């Protein structure tokens, strides 16, 4: 029986009530008294030298308060990078300056050169047209391999070429891996592109800066997944504002998918300009602006080799990847192709030798950073594609080849430096096969063939590392921050609770699921628990939401704080009942003395904590409020098996997805309804990558599809109903809830099954030369592949 | 500036607008009704769908000046008179048809327009109708399911998908 409340219940989301009635409060809904508006004049060239900017005419336009250029930001810092990668020789990556407004050069289309602040947005925009700029267009570098040529134009004149780093993981594995390839019975090689994507949360970014002269306090309202991180980065590294004088508020946020993790120039600008002008300053991104100013995702070019012995056991994996950084290093960009990609290269398989090489490259394009899955989709895609190709070359069942090589004993230390604590890959594969009726596929294929369509079935596995992350480990790997999470649980006198969490909800439903956990622990109704997040002024220092970390790390902090509450409440209950603390039990909101009929209610104890007339005041303080910080001891490792069935129209190359099934092991589940929804959304983004989406740059560095007219977002009729299952449960062994995280799995696990299915369809139809098609599998690409 | 008067959710409202003022700007900035959202600038995303004289309209694609005397309904006007969620809104909550909530106003308004014309749409009809509404969170599964449920169709088989 499904539970009707607490952990494991599909509680309806309380946040829906405001979102369904138009009462959500997103950043663009915030308007402050006296607010001015900023318009950013952005470079329309990918690479240009800025000789002169004349703002004098614009300054005198109606409504203009001030025009800012790069010179106005010389006294403050640049946008910092939060991760330093060390290269194969032990040297730090090349790290360029990233000014708030461009100085000297513009380095990508969209790079902000000037900013006009005016009484209205229209006035600011009109005045921007009157700014006279003397720019020399420079040759742009767009292609990564071309960018590494000796005579390539340099994105950053002060750096030694366009190579950010050349990284090996693990360098000590290289010789043994090379030797394993020498000894291999079979080697399968695949070259592929994991194309550039745009995250595209439906809410464009917004920033509102405010300044209070009397207290010298700055406030930034922003569309962020992690307000404390923005406060730290912007305060300490850009503007020099101490944290106690800077408040960052991220209210309702309309989706993020990674792109709202990072600290952006527009946030620093609005905060800075508000103080300069003594006026609130607001910026609302248009969608067109979002395409050229939000960090993009993916953009890897990879060659992967898989070595097998004569019994088809995997013996080695060797990869070489070029990873596009774009024109500047976005906040976590260097970590994505390295520590979120290289450490996952073992996948679900016991391959003894693995060596990963990544070359990160600067180009005259929008910066690239984490997008849903971040590095792990890239690792999963190449591995699951090369395994499918190997199975075909060897004439073996791709499912059986995977099963033969599954890791089956845990904990398992991979050759790429992580230790999987638990998992059962055969269980999720069994569940998947039960869901998809593989035996019936041939009959379905024959039916499709009668209708003139080519049917294919693709299967793959995935594993990811999330619950990011142990601070000590990521510190060794170059992170310039800790990745713990925090929670304060405040119990009121009348028994209700407020949980203040450093996690941030922007669609994940924390206000509901987090309340379920706390209510379950105490045995009270969920409605007695309120979740507060998103404001540095009333939540403890937290690292925010990304990397499927909220429940595994933020939830664990909340559990620890609630445990402290319960321990203290038991002491109070023991006093009230004149019993030994060791004998006190808490069940369904009642404290009782074991073996007796004595009990006091939760509300009696909370009241006593705040009205301590009869209270052990010599032993414990009054009040009932506790804070906990939780730093995980390992990543969590969700895993699963996915399958996709497609029909290809041989006349047009159009791919139709007929069914999609996902069998996931997320460990324990708090709210199955929300988990289903997270998988649905992730799978849709993965299908979008597989079939529809790509940010396309021309050779001059122009993003040619920078709008919803041209960039193909998945729509309702591009996707089917999904079948999802998370009944296979191997609880995480190292966090108190046994949870692993579910936010990114769908986007990580789904692209390879779609591509495997299309290649399968073409192979079965006799197009045996087609072993791979690069994403997105548009009709033209599939049709061309069929033509040979 | 020209004054325009229209009925929004049953109440007469008026305001001064420029020739270029869009309906969505009139609602959000002029009237402070921020339930209607702006997700793009090419009339693709559908976050701003409202009803004008009973028909679904993208509020970013119509000028406020053209709507003198029009009857406009927005997401703020979709709840029942007693404040409880309307049938479509309730189905969205029951079936988890929203996550971040940003596309939701447009989805609900589009769904209402669809069900007015087609009281029992098929899955395919719903998916085709929603082509002008983009959601990045839900993968559409629970939106389609919620609309089917709101139209009185049995969705228990989909729940098992």
Write up this protein.
The complex is a heterodimer of chains A (788) and B (161). Chain A is of the alpha+beta class and 788 residues long. Chain A folds into 3 domains: 200 residues, Aldehyde oxidase/xanthine dehydrogenase, a/b hammerhead (Aldehyde Oxidoreductase, domain 3, Alpha-Beta Complex), CATH 3.90.1170.50; 328 residues, Aldehyde oxidase/xanthine dehydrogenase, molybdopterin binding domain (Aldehyde Oxidoreductase, domain 4, 2-Layer Sandwich); 147 residues, Aldehyde oxidase/xanthine dehydrogenase, molybdopterin binding domain (Aldehyde Oxidoreductase, domain 4). Chain A has 19 helices and 28 strands. In chain A, the strands form 7 sheets. Chain A has a 7-stranded mixed sheet with strand order 3-5-1-12-9-10-11. A 5-stranded mixed sheet of chain A has the order 7-15-14-13-8, sandwiched between helices. In chain A, a hairpin with a 5-residue loop joins strand 19 and strand 20. In chain A, helix 15 crosses helix 16. Chain B is elongated. Helix content of chain B is 32%, strand content 16%. Chain B has 161 residues and is an alpha+beta fold. Chain B has 2 domains: 76 residues, Beta-grasp domain (Ubiquitin-like (UB roll)), CATH 3.10.20; 68 residues, DNA polymerase, domain 1, CATH 1.10.150. In chain B, strands 2-1-5-3-4 form a 5-stranded mixed sheet, with helices on both faces. Chain B has 6 helices and 5 strands. At the A-B interface, helix 1, helix 17 and strand 28 of A face helix 2, helix 3, helix 4 and helix 5 of B.
């Amino acid at each position: 029986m499904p539970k009707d409340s607490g952990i494991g219940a599909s509680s309806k989301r309380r946040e829906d009530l405001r979102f369904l009635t138009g009462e959500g409060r997103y950043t663009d809904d915030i308007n402050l008294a006296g607010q001015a508006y900023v318009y950013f004049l952005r470079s329309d060239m990918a690479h240009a030298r800025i000789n002169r900017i004349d703002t004098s005419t614009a300054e005198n336009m109606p409504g203009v308060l001030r025009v800012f250029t790069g010179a106005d930001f010389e006294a403050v810092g640049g946008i910092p990078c939060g991760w330093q990668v060390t290269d194969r020789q032990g040297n730090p990556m090349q790290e360029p300056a990233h000014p708030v407004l461009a100085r000297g050069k513009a380095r990508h289309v969209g790079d902000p050169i000037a900013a006009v602040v005016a009484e209205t947005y229209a006035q600011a925009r009109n005045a921007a047209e009157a700014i006279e700029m003397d720019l020399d267009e420079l040759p742009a570098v767009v292609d990564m391999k071309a960018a590494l040529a000796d005579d390539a134009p340099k994105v950053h004149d002060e750096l030694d070429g366009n190579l950010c780093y050349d990284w090996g993981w693990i360098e000590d594995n290289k010789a043994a891996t090379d030797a394993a390839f020498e000894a291999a019975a079979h080697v399968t090689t695949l070259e592929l592109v994991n194309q550039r994507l745009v995250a595209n949360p439906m809410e464009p970014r917004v920033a509102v800066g405010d300044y209070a002269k009397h207290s010298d306090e700055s406030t930034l309202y922003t569309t962020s997944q992690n307000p404390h991180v923005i406060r730290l980065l912007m305060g300490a590294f850009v503007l020099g504002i101490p944290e106690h004088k800077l408040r960052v508020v991220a209210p309702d946020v309309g989706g993020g998918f990674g792109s709202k993790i990072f600290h952006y120039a527009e946030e620093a600008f609005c905060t800075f300009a508000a103080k300069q002008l003594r006026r609130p300053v607001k910026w609302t991104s248009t969608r067109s602006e979002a395409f050229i100013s939000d960090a993009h995702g993916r953009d890897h070019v990879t060659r992967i080799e898989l070595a097998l012995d004569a019994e088809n056991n995997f013996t080695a994996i060797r990869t070489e990847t070029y990873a596009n950084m774009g024109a500047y290093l976005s906040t976590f960009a260097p970590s994505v192709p390295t520590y979120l990609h290289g450490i996952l290269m073992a996948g679900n398989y016991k391959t003894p030798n693995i060596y990963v090489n990544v070359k990160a490259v600067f180009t005259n394009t929008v910066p690239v950073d984490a997008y849903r899955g971040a590095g792990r989709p890239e690792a999963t895609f190449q591995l699951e594609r090369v395994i499918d190709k190997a199975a075909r070359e060897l004439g073996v069942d791709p499912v059986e080849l995977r099963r033969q090589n599954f890791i089956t004993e845990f904990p398992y230390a991979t050759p790429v430096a992580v230790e999987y604590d638990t998992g059962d890959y055969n269980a999720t594969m069994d569940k998947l096969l039960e869901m998809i009726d593989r035996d019936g596929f041939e009959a379905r294929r024959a039916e499709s063939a009668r209708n003139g369509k080519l049917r294919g079935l693709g299967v793959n596995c995935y594993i990811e590392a999330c619950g990011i992350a142990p601070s000590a480990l990521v510190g060794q790997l170059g992170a310039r921050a800790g990745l713990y999470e925090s929670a304060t649980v405040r119990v009121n006198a009348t028994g209700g609770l407020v949980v203040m969490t450093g996690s941030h909800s922007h669609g994940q439903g924390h206000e509901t699921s987090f309340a379920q956990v706390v209510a379950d622990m105490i045995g009270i109704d969920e409605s007695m628990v309120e979740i507060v997040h998103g404001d540095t002024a009333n939540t403890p220092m937290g690292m925010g939401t990304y990397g499927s970390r909220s429940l595994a790390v933020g939830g664990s902090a909340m559990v620890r704080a609630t445990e402290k509450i319960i321990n203290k409440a038991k002491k109070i209950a023991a006093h009230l009942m004149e019993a030994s603390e060791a004998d006190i039990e808490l069940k369904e909101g009642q404290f009782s003395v074991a073996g007796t009929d004595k009990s006091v209610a939760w509300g009696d104890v909370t009241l006593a904590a705040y009205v301590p007339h009869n209270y052990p005041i010599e032993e414990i303080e009054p009040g009932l409020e506790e804070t906990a910080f939780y730093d995980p001891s390992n990543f969590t490792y969700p895993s699963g098996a996915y399958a996709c069935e497609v029909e290809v129209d041989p006349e047009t190359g159009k791919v139709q997805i007929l069914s999609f099934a996902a069998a996931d092991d997320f460990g324990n589940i708090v709210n199955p309804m929300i988990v289903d929804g997270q998988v649905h959304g992730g799978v849709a983004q993965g299908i979008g990558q597989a079939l529809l989406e790509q940010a396309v740059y021309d050779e001059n560095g122009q993003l040619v599809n920078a709008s919803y007219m041209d960039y193909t977002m998945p729509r309702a009729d591009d996707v089917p109903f999904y079948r999802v299952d998370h009944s296979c449960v191997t609880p995480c062994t190292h966090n108190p809830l046994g949870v692993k995280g579910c936010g990114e799995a769908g986007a990580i696990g789904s692209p390879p099954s779609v591509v495997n299915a299309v290649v399968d369809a073409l192979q079965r139809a006799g197009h045996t030369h087609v072993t791979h098609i690069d994403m997105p599998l548009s009709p033209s690409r599939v049709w061309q592949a069929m033509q040979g | 500036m020209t004054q325009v008067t229209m009925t929004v959710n049953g109440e007469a409202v008026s305001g001064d607008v420029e020739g270029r003022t869009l309906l969505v700007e009139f609602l959000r900035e002029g009237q402070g009704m921020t339930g209607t959202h702006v997700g793009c600038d090419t009339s693709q995303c559908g976050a701003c769908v409202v009803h004008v004289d009973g028909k679904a309209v993208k509020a970013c694609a119509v000028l406020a000046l053209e709507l003198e005397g029009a009857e406009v309904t927005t997401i703020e006007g979709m709840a029942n008179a007693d404040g409880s969620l309307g049938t479509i809104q309730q189905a969205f909550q029951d079936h988890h048809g929203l996550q971040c909530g940003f596309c939701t106003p447009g989805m609900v308004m589009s769904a209402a327009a669809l069900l007015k014309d087609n009281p029992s749409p098929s899955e395919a009809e719903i998916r085709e109708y929603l082509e002008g509404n983009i959601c990045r969170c839900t993968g559409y599964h629970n939106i389609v399911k919620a609309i089917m449920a709101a139209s009185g169709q049995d969705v228990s088989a989909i729940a098992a998908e």
